[in-house]
Amino acid sequence: MKYTYLLAVSFVFLLLSGCMYPQSERTENQISNEEQLAIVQQAVEDYREGEDGLVPIQTKDSDTHIYEKYLIDFKQMQEKGYLSELPGNSFEEGGVYQYTIVNPEDDLQVRLIDLQTTEQLRSVNVRLDVYRQEHTYPAYGQQITDQIYTVDHEKLGLDEPPTVKSPFSQADLPIVMDLDGKLYIDYSYDLNQALEESDNYEEGEDVRHLLVDNTPFVPAYSMPYTVEDGQAVFMEEE
């Protein structure tokens, strides 16, 4: 009788653990990011070839950040038979990534936006919005360039400067602010690592492509960077 009871309890526990197990960590979602990315990349290329050059993207405003502008519309792909099932790590399937297209009209690349960084940035933005309701200016910290500042964490009631976990290196990346109080992630650390491994760039150009070309991710919520004295620096607007 005792054995039967333990068996029943174990069965219930297994059922509950299956329901409570994070969607992004279930067995069907354990395929690597690279493998899932390759499947979607091929499906998007097949879509473009079969749909007279069109790509399956969600409609966004023209001023949307370049790396969030061309999010993949999986519904279109499924309805037209280019994708049988969605990648298990995608936002649509309860995962932590959004699939986006870089260079849709040229050298099309499918990449990932890490939504964990999105959430970390959003939490700081909520505090900033509250601060702006009571103050004339954003919570500017130290000036980095004529157009970019650190965030004064004390003004926002934070114990230390806000950071975001990098999808590239897992390093803690600073959050910075422009003159309008808009928040961005500072990818200088990741870019400097990339510059140590590659010189595939031209003087004066935006070097963020070094991250896009060599990893599954895009530097979401970033500003343009160029190189000065071998180091990544913010590209100033003229």
UniProtKB/TrEMBL annotation:
Superkingdom to which the source organism belongs: Bacteria
Protein name according to UniProt: ABC transporter periplasmic binding protein yphF
